[in-house]
Amino acid sequence: MATFLRDKKVLATDVIAAQEPWKNKNQHTTHQPATAAFQLLYPAKQTPRGRRPIQGQEQDTGPLQAGVCLFLSKKIDPSTWSCQVISQDYQLLKLRRAHLGKDWTDLFVHNVYNRPGSNTLAQLNHEMSKRPLVEHIVMGDMNAHHPAWGGAGTKIDDEAEQLLEIMDRHNLELISEEGKATWTRNDQESVIDLTLISSTLTSRLIRCERADDVEHSSDHFPARTVLGIETPLREQKKRRNWNATNYVTLIQKIEEGLQVRDLSRADPAQIECQCETLVDVVQSAIDASTPWANPSVWSNPDFDDECKAAVKEVRRLRRKHTRTKDPYDWMQYSQARNRKTRLVKKALSTAHRRRVQQVIEEGPQGMWRLAKWARNRNGAYEKGRTPSLKVQGPEGRDELAETVDQKAEAFRTAFFPQPPPADLSDTTSFEYPEPIEFPPITIHEIQDAVKRAKAGKAPGEDGIPNSLWHKLIEIPIILQVLSQLFNACVRTGYNPAHFQRSITVVLRKQGKDDYQLAKSYRPVALLNTLGKFLEAIIAQRISYAVETHSLLPKTHLGGRRGVSTDHAIHIIIDRIKLAWGKGSPVVSLLLLDVSGAYDNVSHARLLHNLRKRRLGQLVPWVKAFLLNRSTRIRMPEGMPDRFPTPTGIPQGSPISPILYLIYNADLIESCGNGVTSNGWVDDACLMVKGDSERETTQKLRSACRKADQWAKKHASVFDPKKYALIHFVNTQEVDPQYTPLCLDGHTVAATRTAERYLGYWLDPALEFQDHREKAIEKAGVSLQALQSLAGSTWGASLSAMRRIYQAVVIPQMLFGVSVWYQPMVISKKKARTTSQPFVAIQKRAACLISGAFRTTAVEALNTELHLPPIATHMNRLVKETAVRLRTGPTFAVPPTMLRSRPAEEREWAGWTPMEAQTWKTGGCLTAPPGTLARHWESRKAFVQAPWQAPPEVIIEDREVAVRSHDQIVSKDPRARPWILYTDGSGVEGKIGAAAVDLQNHHTHSQMGDDDTSTVYAAELRGIEMALNSTLESTAPWVTQVKNGLVIFADSQAALKALRQPRMPSGQ
User: Fold this and answer.
1) CA 928 to chain centroid
2) Which of 116, 580, 912, 1034 is deepest in the core (most CB within 10 A)?
3) Where is the Reverse transcriptase domain positioned along the sequence (predicted)?
4) Burial of 863 (C-beta count, 10 Å sphere; 0-12/13-18/19+)
């Protein structure tokens, strides 16, 4: 297969029908080296059915490997074909075809492997009987013998008689060469690979022959069939070769074609004109500077010259042996083929290792991408093509959507439903508070938004990627035009049409049972990058206002700076233990589900909520952003016409998450007294406490009624079938009853095992056994996938595999460890028992990385590979989580970390995980004797407002910095800026900071010792002291500050922190 599928003559064909393909032992797929030229259609796993038992053999009941597969040329329009798997040995391909460009009709291609003892020929007869008036091509390994194709003297068998009956019944003609062997082994040969066509196709037959000129390395000869028919060709999508961009030409064309227009008083028409001009100029510059990519299906970048020469030599010797049949020629051919195999294997191994190393050098993000590729690299059936979708017909019966337009309509109905009307009666007379004022958008905000956009993200309809905008914003005229354009958009409440167009990509949801349902897919909007920059700026401003002015409920945690799922889960656990300790033995948690959360957003209600939360200044622009949107649905087989999307908010926009936080904030606030609501973007849960499950279910029932009122006002739809109910019961007081929650028209059963929330599996006893088992299972799957990267002769290097394991598998396996592993509370024996399954996973990984025997001691493997023991990993992660939670935003700190509970409450309910780290002796947050007091800083979500530019920071080499310093100092004192020098140092275990000016006025600060501070903190403290001394000084020479202020420091780390101020670490 490998040699066959790399032959240029094979790569030029339209359809390859293979029987008995090579079987991958690790994955249900076959070899596919021609991914650029062919779409592999490999049948999914099936349990054998309908196979006749062979006398003397046991019936196989296990999964059956595929006996057939198809390779379909990617030149054929994918919207014009479909493939049906009749069985593992029979595929039916439906093609649109024409003769001389006329009379487009259906053509059915049957790929058959008549496995001995199977009923494949009966299935062939049945499928052809269902399609009597169309044309057929039947090809495959028939395993049938008859003189009609085998030549005189061929013994007739039952399979041949059955095949002849099918030919007569369906008017098929045999076009294979009579008597020419299609199978040979040693001295045996026969004709069993046949090609049949409908009699109406014989006039269009050009040739059918054994392809002796094609290298195949098989005991079956390939057969070539050529018909004078046409298939619709795919419109080849062109892409740019961005690596070959001539940036000098690009900049020159932009500067020549672009002009800065004053849009301070512009109307929507002028804004639209300026936006179109900007995009046209950029596109024209791209046309002039960036060529189109010209990929070739023939090239293999991993082959070197030696490999190419070896392939040519093998082909030459094979042709020679085919002519002579000389044993010596066969020996030469075999030796050359073996040498070629070794060379190709070595070249592919070297290239594979190089690519793995390049990805690893990108950091954790690259390693996660590599691991995802390893998990998903199996050749799924119809991968890269959307299967036929089940839709409801006019009579209520299921029908199949097969064409591109039909599938697009099915997705449109599923992704963009008409939401129920929202009850807006409470908005008519509402008195809105004074809105927050925002200044105009600054150049700094535009630069920051563009730089934060990831370079590898897919562009929108205009095809301009983020990586190009990273270069374009370095052109001054681009920044000036964007500043005028963005400010005009916000000021007038208008969004250009270019910003409103998108492409909706259809992605499969993981773990779904039926991918013929449109709901098994997720829509992601690919927006034009230029519009996304403006949306990112507005989203940043809203986020800043939310955190600065406390516009959201404290329990609405998702999508907020400095808050993670760890915060949410630990807060839930704290509330459970607090309730138990105060005498409420039952805490019930109801997980809600909002159907199509983003798709059903009511625009009028969202705008009302923005005004209500003091964001009224942005409402005109947000309204323009929501209205007049349109999209096209992209599928691998095509992209139909554009259609409007008048409802919801687009998934994929930077502003959508923060808008939805504001949209459903009322749900978190309005579920009644005695009910605690937690929100995580579109996930919400209700928590109540009581003396019995009956009491808590009554409270939840009342809260659900209020949630339904919220849904009525917000045009949202809850799906009670997806609700999950967990009763957390303190078994020291009461026994669990697992009381269900009865709602209108539906009953929610209480879980007895565990329910998933924010990636954690919560069980009623808070033992987290299910969570650990799921984590072990997931880690095992990842290790199995990564095994394909770790071959000892061709896989990634040992150091590369070690880094992948530490960056991918360990975080995946130990996710949420601070919740389910409590070293401060449990005994050492239980700690060992808890960690043992994870120790086993690490040993498997160590054996995989090093190639060691399974009997090797885990301690020896850890030592040789420099892998810390799992217990060390777990303890470290628990302590890091404790510090991160304690120093996070104050509203998200778990309650027991802020206030110590009475001892009797802890004894009755037990320690919470973070409570033990905070207050228990030996915890990582307790203050050892003689050290700093128990005081922890809290991180701020924003160090400064988004529109405030950081100070100008210049980092230079020593010699350059000295020259710059001398140049500034040598200026006339009347024109010279105010100059200060700062430093931080550590001497004899003491840490200090100082600041001094040219008049030798200085300040200094003692910051403690090595246990309480660092030299890095002292460097920052010195800069702070310099600024404070300037502000507080009344000396006359400080008037030089009007010329500017220059601070010289020697810490690059401190200067970089000032250059890009982010959320500080906390300590």
Assistant:
1) 44
2) 912
3) 488-762
4) exposed
Q: Residue 20: left if φ>0, alpha if ψ -120 to 50, beta else—which one?
A: left
Give the lowest-confidence range in 6-10, 308-312, 790-794. Answer: 790-794
Let me know how long the chain is: 1067
d(CA 572, CA 565): 11
The per-residue pLDDT for 54 is 40
Domains and CATH numbers, the chain: 4-44+65-227 (3.60.10.10), 305-376 (no CATH), 762-934 (no CATH), 958-1059 (3.30.420.10)
Q: Which of 384, 395, 386 is nearest to 517 (CA)?
A: 386
Contact predicate 1023/982, CB 8 Å: yes
Percent share of the chain, pLDDT over 70: 92
CA distances from 1013 to 88, 985, 1010, 1018 (A): 68, 11, 6, 8
- Give the burial string for 394-423 (b: 16+ CB within 10 Å, else e): eeeeeeebeebebbbbbbbebbbeebeebe
Please check the confidence at residue 809 and state whether its pLDDT lies above 80.
yes
Q: State phi, psi for 287 to the nearest 5 degrees.
A: -60, -35
Q: Decide if 1022 contacts 1055 (C-beta within 8 A).
A: no
Q: Each residue of 558-603: pLDDT tens digit?
A: 889 889 999 999 999 999 999 999 999 999 999 999 988 888 899 9
Handedness of CA 20, 21, 22, 23 (dihedral sign): negative
**Residue owning tokens 């100082």:** 994
Q: For 442-446, what is the mean pLDDT?
A: 94
Strand partners, 979: 1046
Alpha-carbon distance of 634 to 265, in angstroms, equals 39
Mean per-residue pLDDT of the chain:
87
Tens digit of each residue's pLDDT (9 = 90 or more) over 545-555: 999 999 999 99
Which tokens is 800 given? 């590369």
- One-letter amino acid for residue 472 of the chain: L
Q: How far is the CA of 534 from the CAs of 263, 445, 476, 656, 789, in angstroms?
A: 16, 9, 18, 13, 41
Strands 193-198 and 172-174: antiparallel
Instruction: Tell me which residue has tokens 């420091």.
Output: 1049
Kindly state the DSSP code that residue 637 receives in the 8-state scheme. T
Q: Which two tokens stand for residue 86?
A: 């009749």
Alpha helices in 559-692 (DSSP H): 565-581, 603-612, 619-626, 656-663, 665-669
Of residues 139, 195, 130, 203, the one with CA closest to residue 169: 130
